[in-house]
């Protein structure tokens, strides 16, 4: 939920602050602000938990601390009970109030007690010092930039580009303090490169399947704790189908939404599953030629993404969340993250079991700027909060204790997940092979046609102040013979594709897009018969 913006420092300018908050308008329904000398704080709030009383920015009872927060804390009921026993009074039933109370009681250790998808800023109002925190894997974003005599903080890059200064990011799983006129000092509260380290490997298939089932079922359960209608982004693949199966069982007020060309695999599988489950199903049917340059430009503007493949997926995702907004759905589950945890891509078995762990951890650490950035921006750009159950910290840590041979087995990716839910999944879903999102929707090659323009469009919005568009990591890894160290170094040395590489890619996309036109031109023509006059 929400988009947050703050300007902290003696030169904080109200007009600049208002422009920052306006850039975040799609992320919520109401604008709430608090202003004082040297501190301008505001939230564009999407009302989900305790919709009437969770007004932000939230002040502590003694008014010493101010909180701007976005996301959801899924264990806020338990934390509220514990803090109540410790003597903390509560004015609402919101998770917002719990976050600030937890910080006031446990200080920086509070992040270790939060189970959720979040980013927040706590400001000491007297000094202007700000405590920044972001969830372990980076589902929710937080950025900062400096102006003269001022520190600016915001949920999205687009709120900060107007300052013309370099933009910094609070990395996933990091927290720390920022001074209005001093450094931003951040450190990890979760080390994503050591997930599962020191814990025993789980190599028994039955034990691994049981633990995966328990962890994922619980992760989905806590994300269904809402009295609102829950949407499920349904591709008809393994991961989104599991989300829908659980939502239908635990939260019958749900709806599935699918995008694709009419005869695409995603549409066919999703229609069948939704019909079998009796779940309302919205299909956004598109023809490839429906995607035009304006759609690509808008997807880049919304998503701020920096890898070509993620941008293509954003182009395909936008119609889904536009339809969810039209339906009035504010909470949605997605299946994102499962491939990165359970071996859904060929790269994991191509590097071999010895090197696969480092590759898994590298992909997980970068989710916050790739797949999860797409999910956050495209969903919140339409006032929809996307929740990602596969990326709960408990599931992350468990996945890194399961060896590669249980993730990819007999040529089948995500084998242990299929095994864990074999009795729940329809056979046609359980046996369906992995197919990347934009490909299985039938829209990839059309969006790819505009690929040579992505970097220029990205720069037109000023997003290079954070980082430029770069080559897709999987293509770099392949070119480097699946050597992770070489791929990382090569990505830094030559971030973008060459002109020749772009030209080759464009030729391939142009050929694909030309095929339907050629078929129409050379195929048999329907002769329209004109009735004879009487």
Draw up the topology in text.
Blueprint: E1 3-8, H1 14-23, E2 30-36, E3 39-45, E4 58-59, E5 65-73, H2 76-85, H3 95-106, E6 116-124, E7 130-134, E8 143-147, E9 150-154, E10 167-169, E11 174-178, E12 184-188, H4 205-223, E13 230-233, H5 238-250, E14 254-260, H6 265-277, E15 281-285, H7 293-303, H8 308-327, E16 331-333, H9 338-342, H10 346-350, H11 353-365, H12 371-380, E17 385-387, H13 393-399, H14 404-407, H15 415-420, H16 427-430, H17 437-440, H18 444-448, H19 454-460, H20 473-479, H21 484-493, H22 499-522
Parallel strand pairs: 13-14, 13-16, 14-15, 16-17
Antiparallel strand pairs: 1-3, 1-9, 2-3, 4-5, 5-6, 6-7, 7-11, 8-9, 8-10, 11-12
What features would you describe in this structure?
- This protein is an alpha+beta fold and 534 residues long.
- It is built from 22 helices and 17 strands.
- The strands form three sheets. It has a six-stranded antiparallel β-sheet with strand order 2-3-1-9-8-10, covered by helices on one side. Strands 4-5-6-7-11-12 form a six-stranded antiparallel β-sheet, covered by helices on one side. Strands 15-14-13-16-17 form a five-stranded parallel β-sheet, with helices on both faces.
- The termini are far apart.
- Residues 526-534 have low confidence and may be disordered.
């Amino acid at each position: 939920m929400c988009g947050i913006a703050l300007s902290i420092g003696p030169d904080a300018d109200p007009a600049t602050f208002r422009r920052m908050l306006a850039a975040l308008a799609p992320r919520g329904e109401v604008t709430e602000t608090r202003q004082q000398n040297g501190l301008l704080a505001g939230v564009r709030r999407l009302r989900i938990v305790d919709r009437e009383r969770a007004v932000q920015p939230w002040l502590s009872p003694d008014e010493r601390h101010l909180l701007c927060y976005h996301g959801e804390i899924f264990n806020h009921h338990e934390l509220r009970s514990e803090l109540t026993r410790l003597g903390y009074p509560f004015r609402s039933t919101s998770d917002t109030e719990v976050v600030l109370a937890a910080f006031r009681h446990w200080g920086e250790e509070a992040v270790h007690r939060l189970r959720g998808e979040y980013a927040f800023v706590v400001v000491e109002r007297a000094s202007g010092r700000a405590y920044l925190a972001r969830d372990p894997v980076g589902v929710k974003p937080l950025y900062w930039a400096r102006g003269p005599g001022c520190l600016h903080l915001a949920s999205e890059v687009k709120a900060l580009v107007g300052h013309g200064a370099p933009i910094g990011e609070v990395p996933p799983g990091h927290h720390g303090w920022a001074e209005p006129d001093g450094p931003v000092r951040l450190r990890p509260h979760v080390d994503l490169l050591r997930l599962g380290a020191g814990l025993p490997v789980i190599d028994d298939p039955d034990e691994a399947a049981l633990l995966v089932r328990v962890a994922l079922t619980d992760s989905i359960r806590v994300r269904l704790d809402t009295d609102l209608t829950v949407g499920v982004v349904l591709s008809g693949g393994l991961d989104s189908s599991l989300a829908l199966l659980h939502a239908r069982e635990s939260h019958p007020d749900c709806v599935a939404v699918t995008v694709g060309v009419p005869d695409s695999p995603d549409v066919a599988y999703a229609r069948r599953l939704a019909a079998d489950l009796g779940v309302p199903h919205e299909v956004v049917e598109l023809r490839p030629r429906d995607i035009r340059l304006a759609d690509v430009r808008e997807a880049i503007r919304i998503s701020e993404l920096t890898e070509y493949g993620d941008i293509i997926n954003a182009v395909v995702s936008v119609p889904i969340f536009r339809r969810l907004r039209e339906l009035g759905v504010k909470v949605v589950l997605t299946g994102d993250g499962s491939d990165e945890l359970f071996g859904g891509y060929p790269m994991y078995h191509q590097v071999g079991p010895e090197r696969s762990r480092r590759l898994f951890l590298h992909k997980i650490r970068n989710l916050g700027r790739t797949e999860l950035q797409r999910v956050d921006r495209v969903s919140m750009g339409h006032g929809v909060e996307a929740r990602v159950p596969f990326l709960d910290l408990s599931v992350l840590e468990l996945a890194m204790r399961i060896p590669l041979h249980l993730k990819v087995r007999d040529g089948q990716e995500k084998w242990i997940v299929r095994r864990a839910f074999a009795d729940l999944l329809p056979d046609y879903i359980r046996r369906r092979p992995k197919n990347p999102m934009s490909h299985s929707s039938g829209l990839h090659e059309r969006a790819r046609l505009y690929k040579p323009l992505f970097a220029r469009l990205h720069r037109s919005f000023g997003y290079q102040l954070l980082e430029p568009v770069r080559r897709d990591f999987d293509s770099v890894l392949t070119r480097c013979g699946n050597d992770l160290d070489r791929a990382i170094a090569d990505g830094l040395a030559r971030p973008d594709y060459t002109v020749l590489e772009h030209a080759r890619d464009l030729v391939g996309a142009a050929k694909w897009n030309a095929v339907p036109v050629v078929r129409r031109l050379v195929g048999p023509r329907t002769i329209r018969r004109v009735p004879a006059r009487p």
